[in-house]
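[job 0417] fold request received: Transposase IS4-like domain-containing protein
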Amino acid sequence: MEKEPLYLEPHYAGGKPGDVTLSLIDATLKVVDKKDIRFIFDKWFSVGQLLEFLDKNYQVEFVTLLRLHQNRVKEMQRIPKDRFRRLSETQRIAVTTTNTQNYTGKLKLIVIEEEDEDPPLPGYLTNVQEDIESRLIWEYSKRWRIENFFKENLFLHLDHLPGIDLAKINLLLYYKKVAYHAVTAFKKSLPDEHKNKHIQTIVEDLLEAEPFVKKRGDRIRVSFMGHRYEDILQPIFSKIDHKLEEKGIEPVYHWLNDDKIEFE
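[job 0417] inference complete; emitting structure tokens
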């Protein structure tokens, strides 16, 4: 069963990742089922003493990116080529065990070899015993996508929650995700020179500037005349009511007294 990720971003001025890990885990375990959790850490958490404590005292699964010290790079390079199997068109994967300073016992070492790229090879440490290495790699990549989404979309104020009521939090995040995907879809309609722009830049440059709006009877008419990007916006929104009708969608806005919006 697919589980929703829980993303935590601590701020610990002057401290180290290990200083806040246990507090984060305690907070996490209060809101999620311990049996259904796996912690995905970045390389700064690959500290043997910390991983030992998590393994022995919390009995939780973890995956962490390996810090590429020279001895680690050489260790991965010594893995025989026949130990690697195909992971994707450009990647091969090998699994072995390794020792980590201040960690009792062995940890599983997952190594990814990128074709046509020079070492160092990316490596992952984990205490997961199941043979699900491909899934662990996918989960780790998902972790970065989540982190980057939060970092790149701070302008949506995703960290400004309405309280502790989960229903209100879910509703607010739902609205913000809808807005994000709406702008993403809008981005696909833009000329090529704008398609590489960040979502925030598109919102600020093309959507925040107010168009000319006038109400006539049961119709609200919107014009981009004089807008900095009039030549881009006018063709996209022109006759949008007809485009919606062609798709079987009535271009009526119930929160605007069932008026229709026309873009000129």
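[job 0417] notes: Residues 155-208 form one domain. The longest helix spans residues 166-187.
[job 0417] exit 0
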